[in-house]
Amino acid sequence: MIEYVRHVLDNGLRVLVHRDNSTPLATVNLLYCVGARDEQPDRTGFAHLFEHLMFGGTRQIPDFDAAVDALGGEANAFTNNDYTNYYLTLPAQHVREALALEANRMGGDWNTDGDHWEVLDVQQRVVTEEYNQRYVNQPYGDVWMHLRPLCYTQHPYRWCTIGADIRHVQEATLDDVRRFYDRFYRPDNAILAIAGNVEPDSILAMTDEVFGSLHRSTSTPLPDVRHRIYPTEPCQTAPRCKEILRDVPNNAIYMAWHTCDRWNPSYYAFDMLSDLLSNGHSSRLYRKLVQETNLFSEINAYITGDLGPGLFVISSKLNDNSSQALSRAEEAIWEQIELLQNDLAKQSPSLATEIEKVANKYENTFLFSQYKAADRALSLCYYDMIGDTDLINREPQVYRLTSFPILSQAALTLQHNNCSTLRILRKAN
Question: What is the pTM for the complete model shown?
Answer without folding.
Answer: 0.95
